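This part of the workshop introduces the protein records we will be handling. An example says more than a description, so a record of this kind follows:
>
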Amino acid sequence: MMREKFSQRVLLPAAIILAGFTAIVCLSSFIANARPAMPESYEDADLNMNGSQLKGFAFGMEGLLADWYFMRSLQYIGYKVLRSKAETLNIDDLRELNPRLLHPLLKNATDLDPHFIAAYSYGAIVLPAIDPEKAVDLAAKGVASNPDEWRLYQHLGYIYWRLRRYDKASETYEKGSQIAGAAPFMKMMAAAMKTQGGTRETARAIYQQMLAGSDDEQVRITAERHLAQIDSLDEREAIDRVLGEFKERSGRCAANFGEILSILMGVKLPGNREFRVDRANRLVDPTGAPYILDETECKAVLDKSKTAIASD
């Protein structure tokens, strides 16, 4: 009788629990193996809260919440870059990273704190490579909320320039130039956009000003990379010109850059820059990676496996 009661009270429930647990494990394993592959767009967890809905209900903590959204936006892009399987990253087109939450994160930050200048600045640099129209919206929002901040006009003008909307860029730079304390650069850009908006010289001036006038690390990194790309374009044009002259004289392409190096060392590049060689006496690009001679085309090309310069 005691054994029967023990079986009914202990062993039977234990057996049922064990069977149920085994079934759950098996079912979970089956579901995990049978689950269809999800698109990359589902990799991100959507934002659970719209920052603008918290404004006025955060008991004075709006600034702290805005900081949290901004820091998350920085980490978000960093995570995307680290997870990327691409061999090279084109800083002018980040759409392959699918960073669909960057704009909502920055929007939340600036909804909570409309005077969050760093968030607008970061958006002006990164968003144009993801969604230019949303970049315009965020920068225009910054200008509207902070009409006395001339740097926000600079950011908006920069985005219009990237979109080749030179008239809008000129108008924006002109408005910004009228603000007290605005850099003379703003007036210069307002004029340049009307006459040479698409030139390399204008691009160089824009990124030099970014580099000189910003303490934001992301802005400085972006400016440095773009300046390196512009300098490399100048260098390759000069190299190709010398290669062409050599071929016309000798009837063949140079076998290596050593054959024209003495001529190149006498060439003055824009900004009075000179060509550089490394310790192995190889002609190198602005990031220190050796140029490659394409003998078929008889021109200089980037070594994509070593250079930090984005492909043209």
Q: What stands out?
A: The domain at 58-225 is CATH 1.25.40.10 (Serine Threonine Protein Phosphatase 5, Tetratricopeptide repeat). The longest helix spans residues 217-250. DSSP finds twelve helices and four strands in the chain.
